Amino acid sequence: MTHIITSLCLRDGGCIEVCPVDCIITGTPIKEWPWMYIDPDSCIDCGACVPECPYEAIFIEDEVPDAYEAAGGEYISRVGLDGHYEATDHYDEAVVLDCVKKLEEGEIVDLTDDIQPNYDFFTDGPGYD
């Protein structure tokens, strides 16, 4: 079992700072891997990353919601979306994403679709490279 970062992630980076085993990696290239990823083989399930995420994007794998109901105004970031997002992260660095969608109040999103990309990033993707 591991923690999963979902497409609610907007690359803040605070989660990386608090991880005691350095298992959280920023996805690159950004168009293919738009959020942060947790190495399932290194994660010790301490949960330190969960309260650090300002977007509430991190879940225990078995608790990733299949019917996440948006409060409205939050974004999802997924390959294939074409919305634009700009902000600053935990380190006051610019974050620019061109693969987002702003969610409407009451919109339902299946975040379980985000589980497999966390595994793929470390098997088929760039992982620690």
Number of helices: 2
Measured on Cα atoms, how large is the radius of gyration? 14 Å
> Got a strand count?
9
- Judged by helices, strands and strand pairing, the structural class is alpha+beta
Q: Show unreliable segments.
A: none
Give the overall form.
globular
User: What string, H for helix and E for strand, traces the elements in order?
Assistant: EHEEEEEEEEH
Describe the biggest sheet? 3 strands, antiparallel
In helices, the fraction of residues equals: 10-25%
Strand content: 25-35%
Task: Summarize the structure in words.
A three-stranded antiparallel β-sheet has the order 6-8-7, with no helix packed on it. A two-stranded antiparallel sheet has the order 1-4. It is globular. It is built from two helices and nine strands; from the N terminus they run E-H-E-E-E-E-E-E-E-E-H. Helix content is 11%, strand content 26%. The longest helix is centred in the last third of the chain and has 9 residues, at 115-123. The mean pLDDT is 95.
Keywords:
129 residues, alpha+beta, two-stranded antiparallel ribbon, 11% helix, globular
